Aldehyde dehydrogenase (Actinoplanes couchii), 487 residues
Amino acid sequence: MERVREVRQHIGGEWVDAAGGRTYDKRDPWTGDVFARVAAGDADDARAAVTAADRALPDWAGSRPADRQQILLRAADALDRQRDDVRGHLAAETGCGAHFADVQLDFCVRLLRQAAGLGYAPTGQILPSDLPGTRALAVRRPVGVVAAIAPWNASLVLAGRAVVAPIALGNTVVLKPSEEAPFTGGAFWARLLRDAGLPPGVLNVVTHAPGEAGAVAETLIADPRVRRIGFTGSTVTGRRIAEIAGRHLKRAVLQLGGHNPLIVLGDAPLPAAVDAAVYGAFVHSGQTCMCARRIIVERTVMPDFAALFVEKAAGLPTGDPSDPATVVGPVINEWALSLLERRVREAVDLGARLLTGGRPDGRCFPPTVLAGVPPEAELAFDETFGPVVLLEEADDAHDAVRRADATDFGLTAGIITGDPYRGMDLARQLRAGVVHVNDQPVHDEPQMPFGGVRDSGAGRFGIGFAAEEFTEVQWVTARREPRTYPF
Ligand code: NAD
């Protein structure tokens, strides 16, 4: 397997060190060993990357759809051939296990193949005008340079989603990956697309040391040549990004955190509901934005559901992410581990019942289930990124919806019921960007309109929906004859 030792920035088609010459060591979350020495860029690197993206823009925006398509299709095939290496990189860089690595790989190969057709999507409309002799068009064109800021947690998908559709639509991009995923969420994409024939400057990657994201991100957003921001990450950071973008009058697509409910109604088939809930809460060690954080169960079935759910959760294999049997691997870093421990302890101190888990085991946090968590506990109202889930009892379906919506977030939700039509009626009442009936909340496909409402963000990713976010509509009129004016 390929061993990554060094991650350099990619600016204007060149692999470059940080302008200031600094580096940092990115560590493997499971072994603690150095995964790679990474360029620690700063505002100067961000400006250089914007310059490269701006230079590449006219040619790329004017390129033939067929040429863009060939590059993306070649990249899809190349990614498909590198699956074993990528699985290894995802495990070593982010602690991602085999199952979720395959989820990411499948998504990205399909994303590239679908995006390859985007250049051929209709680019406008002919509009009727009340002005005789005037032809009017609404024409979609690229927005220009896009700043893409991505998180670490599903690094391959979230960096891919942030760059592939904007590039396919004729924009150029500066990608700022998380300090926890500079390779699989950054340099890897630059290499994949460059090897597939992407011209220099169309995709640039700037990396930085932990704690230094703010200066790089602010430089990108403030630069007048950057015309749109695509941000995926926590709500706390998203709020900062939106404030800076607002100051510079720029639109930001914001994909933020969630506190996602899974409702289990009294008519749900129990073993299937338990399987769904365990997957939704613990896939990728609870470190996806879509994970079920609260399982709201109708009172009549709660005792049976809780017994089966806790038993299955407690038995999930935990440990080395490179072991294909592992379900719950290490959490991303020490800070995340101590936050999980502190929040569980706080909830228990406030009166919650701990049904399983609750204490770190080495670098892992074992599957943890709590019931009776009081509303003032942080676990009850804030996203807690890890394998911790809350059980909540509801009187009936109406009460379940009320409880599900008792949050400032609104990303994903699931409803499990014996009657899918009843589930669809309830889905329309939920304040969530995505609702799956008879499935748990963790599911995404490249062509779907993925995104949240309220504190979970604004805007949608998804091939077909991306055009709304990463193109500008220009109104063009043309006349053959001169107009008659009143003066
Ligand atoms: P994060 O907010 O800490 O970081 C996200 C990005 O913002 C990273 O690139 C980081 O370097 C950068 N950043 C951090 N501090 C910054 C600052 N002060 N100014 C500017 N940029 C800054 O999030 P994370 O821990 O990397 O990722 C997990 C979070 O992302 C969770 O909240 C999760 O729910 C969310 N997420 C949302 C989606 C979605 O589609 N809605 C998808 C995945 C993850």
About this structure: Residues 352 and 374 are 7 Å apart (CA to CA).
